[in-house]
Amino acid sequence: MTRTHTPPDEIRARFARAMSAMYRAEVPAYGTLVTLVETVNAQALAGDAALAARLATTGELARITEERHGAIRLGTAAELATMRRLFAVMGMVPVGYYDLSVAGVPVHSTAFRPVDPAALAHNPFRVFTSLLRLELIADVALREAAADILAQRRIFTPDCLALIARAEAEGGLTAAEARQFVTEALETFRWHEEANVTAGLYHRLHEAHRLVADVVAFRGPHINHLTPRTLDIDAVQARMPDEGITPKAVIEGPPARRVPILLRQTSFKALEEPVAFLAPEGVAPEGTTPEGQAPEGMSRGRHTARFGEIEQRGLALTSKGQALYDRLLAETRARVTPKADGSNAAQYLATLSEVFAAFPDDLDSLRLQGLGYFRYTPTGLAAQTDLTRPAAELVAAGVLRADPITYEDFLPVSAAGIFQSNLGDSAAQTFEANPNRARFEADLGAPVIDLHQLYAEAEAASLARARAALAQSPHPPAARPPARDAGPD
Ligand code: OOG
Ligand code: NI
């Protein structure tokens, strides 16, 4: 009997919706933020017809209201390897390697996401996925205790594991299996109030690093934020306080510009939430708290983990553009390092704008100087032209149109800023910078995809398609060779 499979893109879209509904119920401020983003996006589109037209051309207009990224933090190599298989069922693959140890966060990360333009247009859901690096924790005894606890937890339901194996064996899931998969997979990302550890161990883990406590002390990798995409991050940032949400002081990434590049992000602080710790053996559980009685055999406590974030996406930069961005950002931060309490935010932002004045801010310069990636489409104006001419000349001749390719990935310095803002103001620590991509890929069980290669291929493929389409389009009379036009009879 043949099986009809639900397309992975469809499973991903349904999963993203289910995750959003779950997170809205768990963290009400997320719902408030989504509503604010929808309002601002509608205003941005209404006020900028060119923006609306460009997003329609690149297939982003339809996806934008549902566009989200989330983030999780895993504890073991085995969890990471299984997570890769889980995301593969939904057409999401690991793109990029991000070393956060430089920024004092003991993790390294990748982003699981769809890669083909059609899949991105269907639903671009991505998950920034970090793996804890216990080897960066100095206290050996604590490290071993943490490793023992992590080795015992099971973050995937048995049915979820069975469905992943089924999808791999059969090459996909039937409609009924896909429905069940979404339900089962969601369980892994749910918040669990009951910790895996006693309050005493929690505090030791927390002291080593807040992030270690967040990963080790709980039953699973709760989704720690879900981020809607806005078309005007400055407007959302300015309006968040009116909605009772306090954003972090500084928007991460490039400054506000005419042509948005890469990614700008801001977040609001993590919530302090009630949790229940295991009671140490032989000790009676503590009494009631305002949240009520702890479950039998447990004691009450609090943990901050989950927060809200918004992002604005812009032009994907080539290696040359990325190098310029990295240099200007480093120069800005060497002049003014943003303080965690936000006290020098204005000075930082002024310096950022001043230093980034050196980054071209119109689409033509960005394209002609090779700083960004573009998608080429034929304009429909088939002129008399030699189609082997460079893309820039075909654009200048009005034969091709160039639209910016949107950056679909993350930025390590920004990610570190987001981590730090939700780990608390005093969490800044330093580790030796030691990226270990080979180790990460061994743990993942696969190489991570190079993001520049993806954008370069997308650009080259669009150009090849555009040239092929032009070559086939009927030439207007002026373009025809005269010999063929003037027939002998
Ligand atoms: C992930 C922080 C990074 C982003 O958008 O850069 C991130 C985390 O806190 O687990 O989500
Ligand atoms: Ni994020």
From TrEMBL:
InterPro entries: HGLS, YdcJ_bac-like. Pfam families: HGLS. It comes from the Bacteria. The keyword Metal-binding does not apply. SMART domains: DUF1338 (SM01150). Keywords: Dioxygenase, Iron, Oxidoreductase, Plasmid. Belongs to the 2-oxoadipate dioxygenase/decarboxylase family. This is 2-oxoadipate dioxygenase/decarboxylase.
